[in-house]
Structure formats: C-alpha cells, structure tokens
C-alpha cells in the first residue's frame, strides 16, 4: 500500500517573527534541494507566525498547518481562531487534540471531533492526535485507550484524504523516551484496524498514521521504516532545520 510519508513539524509555542521566518526559509531551501522528494513536508508554527512562515515557504512544497482551531467559523469567542481564518492564512492542515491541549485546555475527544468537522468544512485537513499516558501504558491499556480516542475523536466523515492520525504516547513527548519499534508497530496496526471498522478498509489502507514523541535523527530511521508508520509529528527536533531534515533524510530520497 503506497501511503506518502508525511514529515510534520509541530513548533508548539516557540518562535518570534525573525527566527520563525529563518527556520521556515531554511526548511524550504533544504526541501527544494530534494527535488521531487518521496515524502510530503508540513510545518505547524504558532498562530502569530502563520503569515510570516507562509511567505517564507513561498515556492516550496512545504505545507503550512496550525496547532488548533475553534469549532465555529466566526463570532464571539475571545482569543479563539477559526478554521476559516487558518485557511485564509494559507494553512492546509490543522493539528487537533494534541495531548498538551487535551491536558492544558481540557479538550475532550468529543470536542476534537467537532473541531475536525469544522476543519473539513473550511477545506482543511486534520491531524488528529491520540496517545496513552504512562499510567495507562503501565496498566496495559494502551490499545484500549487509543482505540477509544480514535472512535470518539475521528468524525464519521473522515477520509484518508482529509485526515491524518498521529499516535503520540504522552510519556514520550519531549522526554527523550520512546516505545520500542515493536510496540509502535503494534499500536499503529491496532489503530489501522479500528479505522477500518469505523471508516472502511479503503480509508484505513490509505490513511496516514504518524508517530510522534521524541522522534530525533538518531531514532527516526527505525521508526519510519515500520510498515504502519507513515511519517512523524516532530516537536523539539523540528525547531532546528538540520535535525528536521536529518529525520526526513532517513526516508525521503532524492
Ligand atoms: P517531541 O513532541 O518531538 O518534542 O517529543 C512531539 C509532539 O508533541 O508533537
């Protein structure tokens, strides 16, 4: 099954205008050097950098994404950003349900699902994040938790064209710890089975499932070579163009 690898950078709450533009330019230049790479690239800066990064990426094949959106198109929602606004800024993707938003902003899977529906309506693709906590893993509940999150967070209208799943064990994010490659493959295969039940085999075979959580140049090749891993959602290592591109280099040939 040919699923195009997606190398996605989640910049989180990092970057001021000058360094955001510089980082995006560096990534754009390096991706251009790859000619027609066998994978897709995406960067997701904070809202304040979207238009600056869009300009810096001009003429490159790197897509732009945001890290969250509201469920409404517009209105009285102080401090929020709508999917339509993201589309207007040049975004084609939005990350939804990241564990930091689930924890810091009490986002439920039901809300994530509504956000994904709103994103589709605005013409955005959703990168829907799921993943277990350390306590859940220790209790042997990883697959149960991830399956429930998929069922509840992914809309029935999701397709392989409008949705990417990111499996990010909460305990692996920003910690330098990662599951074994066997564990990652087991969870990704289980996620694909749940997607098949929910959205049909066709979508399940084509939908990309990214791994995220301390993906670095040193461990990327092993993770990205797994049959059910279709790319990476990269936090810390996406803030340095050389690390981000070194991760890509393990799978994106010239
Ligand atoms: P990390 O973050 O690569 O810094 O662990 C990944 C993520 O949270 O998306």
What's the CATH architecture? Alpha-Beta Barrel
Bound molecules: 2-phosphoglycolic acid
Rg from alpha-carbon coordinates:
17 Å
* Strands side by side in the biggest sheet: 1-2-3-4-5-6-7-8
Oligomer state equals single chain
Global mean pLDDT: 97
Write the CATH fold name.
TIM Barrel
Q: What is the number of independent domains?
A: 1
CATH 4th-level superfamily = Aldolase class I
Q: Just give the CATH class.
A: Alpha Beta
What is the rounded distance between the termini? 21 Å
Counted beta strands: 8
Poorly predicted regions = none
Biggest sheet details:
8 strands, parallel, barrel
Question: What fraction of residues sit in β-strands?
Answer: 15-25%
The secondary structure category is alpha/beta
Helical stretch tally: 11
Coarse morphology: globular
């Amino acid at each position: 099954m040919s699923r195009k690898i997606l190398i996605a950078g989640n910049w989180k709450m990092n970057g001021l205008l000058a360094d955001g533009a510089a980082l995006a330019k560096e990534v754009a230049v390096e991706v251009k050097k790859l000619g027609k790479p066998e994978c897709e690239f995406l960067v997701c800066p904070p809202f304040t950098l979207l238009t600056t990064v869009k300009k810096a990426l001009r003429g490159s094949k790197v897509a732009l994404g945001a890290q969250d959106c509201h469920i409404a198109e517009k209105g009285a929602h102080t401090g929020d950003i709508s999917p339509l606004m993201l589309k207007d800024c040049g975004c084609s993707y939005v990350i939804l349900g990241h564990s930091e938003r689930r924890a810091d902003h009490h986002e439920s899977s039901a809300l994530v699902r509504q956000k994904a529906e709103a994103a589709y309506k605005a013409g955005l693709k959703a990168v829907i994040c799921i993943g277990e906590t350390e306590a859940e893993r220790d209790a042997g509940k990883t697959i149960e938790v991830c399956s429930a999150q998929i069922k509840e967070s992914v809309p029935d209208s999701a397709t392989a064209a409008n949705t990417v799943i990111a499996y990010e064990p909460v305990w692996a994010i920003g910690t330098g710890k990662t599951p074994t490659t066997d564990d990652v493959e087991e969870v990704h295969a289980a996620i694909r089975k749940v997607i098949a039940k929910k959205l049909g085999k066709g979508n399940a075979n084509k939908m990309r499932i990214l791994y995220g959580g301390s993906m670095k140049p040193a461990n990327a090749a092993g993770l990205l070579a797994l049959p059910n891993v279709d790319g990476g959602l990269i936090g810390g290592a996406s803030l340095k163009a050389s690390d981000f591109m070194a991760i890509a280099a393990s799978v994106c040939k010239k």
